[in-house]
Amino acid sequence: MIVFLILHYKNEEDTINCINSILKNSNKDYLIFLLNNEESENKLENLYKNNEKIKYYKPSKNLGFAKGNNFLIQKSLYYENIEDIIFLNNDTIIEQEFINKVYKKINEKTAKYFYFQTNSYNNENKIDSIGIEFTTSGVAFNKINKKRKTFCPMGACMLYKKELIKELLEKHGYFFDEDYFCYAEDLDVGFRSLLLGYKPNFINVKVLHKGSASTSKMSDFAIYHSYRNIEWTIKKNYPKSFLIKYFLWIKIAKLGIILNSIYKKRYKIYKKAYKDAKKDKKKIKNKREIIQKSKKIKNKELLKFFTKTLYSRDYL
Predict the structure, then answer these.
(1) How confident is residue 312, by pLDDT bands cut at 50, 70 and 90?
(2) What is the value of pTM for the model shown?
(3) Which of 15, 96, 129, 239 has the fewest CB atoms below 10 angstroms from its CB?
(4) b/e map of 26-44 (b: 16 or more CB within 10 Å)?
(5) Which of 42-56, 87-101, 227-241 has the lowest mean pLDDT?
(6) How far apart are CA 136 and CA 114, in angstroms?
(7) Rg of the Cα trace of the chain?
């Protein structure tokens, strides 16, 4: 059985529309776990409390993306019949045959995790993301060019099989890194899945995504958490030989980001992100040791998933 994990935070109508798009699916072999991260009262609980397809959870405070999803993952592990977990942003809409197409694909493939193409909610012909693209210089962004490499799934819509989630919990101690709070957790867990020797597969199904609906697009909050967390991801997950070989590339890319932030008069928030990424060195080192110890993929094979460049034209 499939379970959809959905976090609600602000934009109540988006969450309702997302859930309703799932409920409209012809295949009913699924559950929805909804976590309400909104501290103020809203109508979601009353709206869905009697729906047998939906399990509703309301923590006492905003858990963020990472901790909130980890909470729902733990709930899903109690259900023996749940085998596939779909992480779905509350500002997405899925097509009515989504579940049928997903079941068909995952039954055909032996992959343990999958990515989707999301298109713009306001322009269905415009690609929002086909997973995440990641350069050897440590720059991550939504892949929008079908001809380019996909490094890992993007968190707005991705599927992980329970057995891979359990392995990540066993080997690394967590699925999403809760120190991240939000942003780049999908990159980190996708990277760690690659290191364990698993490769993502694509499911071709229609998903519409508003994007940045709960936080303004590239707000200071988004910039801070994105760039701090990507720094942590590099420090934790890059094999030692990658850190040495691409050291200069990583530094040049970071310099370019800093210069661009000065030009856009947003230097202070980038400076804070990079400064805070240097904190808790011992904690990051311990995480790195655990991750690298469990690494199974050969470096030559891992490199195939990276885009070998400083920046991407699509990113610029």
Answers:
(1) low
(2) 0.94
(3) 96
(4) eeeebbbbbbbbbeeebeb
(5) 42-56
(6) 22
(7) 19
User: Is the same domain home to 126 and 266?
Assistant: no
CA dihedral defined by 135, 89, 84, 149, rounded to 10 degrees? -20
Query: How many residues are there in the chain?
Result: 316
Provide the number of structural domains found in the chain.
2
Here the CATH number for the domain that contains residue 77 is: 3.90.550.10
| Start-to-end Cα distance in the chain | 41
Exposure of 45 in the CB half-sphere (CA atoms within 13 A)? 11
| Residues β-bridged to residue 92 | 209
Q: Angle at Cα 258 formed by Cα 220 and Cα 210, nearest 5°?
A: 40
Three-state secondary-structure class, residue 63: coil
CA gap 229, 223 in Å, rounded: 10
Domain boundaries, position 268: 220-303
Q: Helix (H, G, I), strand (E, B), or coil: what is residue 2?
A: strand
CB 114 within 8 A of CB 288: no
**Any domain includes 215:** no
For residue 270, being part of any structural domain is answered with: yes
